[in-house]
Amino acid sequence: MARRLISTGSPFEAKIGYSRAVIADGWVFVAGTTGYDYATMTMPAAVETQCANALATIAAALAEAGASLDDVVRVRYILPDRADWPACWPVLSEAFARARPAATMILAGLMEPEMKIEIEVTARLPAVP
Predict the structure, then answer these.
(1) In this structure, is residue 88 part of a structural domain?
(2) How far apart are CA 109 and CA 80, in angstroms?
(3) In the record, which residues are listed under signal peptide (predicted)?
(4) In degrees, to the nearest 5, what angle opens at C-alpha 56 toward C-alphas 108 and 70?
(5) What are the distances in angstroms from CA 53 to CA 3, 37, 122?
(6) Between 47 and 8, the higher pLDDT residue
(7) Measured CA distances, 99 to 89, 107, 110 (Å)
(8) Is this structure's pTM higher than 0.70?
(9) So what's the pLDDT on residue 1?
């Protein structure tokens, strides 16, 4: 079984010892992703912006793997505050309108207090014609 690692160059990947995504056996497993703006290494205040940033980072990792958000089959959302969840719905609805993956929302603390959402996805690589 061939295995390929994808890195976004985030300093956290090397510091903690993980990959943004791992491709194995036709599957793409994307690590939990928060809403950092990696260009500026800042965390926006609004949960909707954090959600959009996390999805952009995930989409870039999927693209590098040869997949897209449309190939996502499973998604997990982790939020420390349930009151933030409804504000994410429009962003998520647009991102996953076609894939409509199986989804779970979990309430849990995140690594830093400014983090309002973390998103983890699993995708299946599209069949090659």
Answers:
(1) yes
(2) 5
(3) none
(4) 95
(5) 27, 6, 18
(6) 47
(7) 15, 24, 26
(8) yes
(9) 58
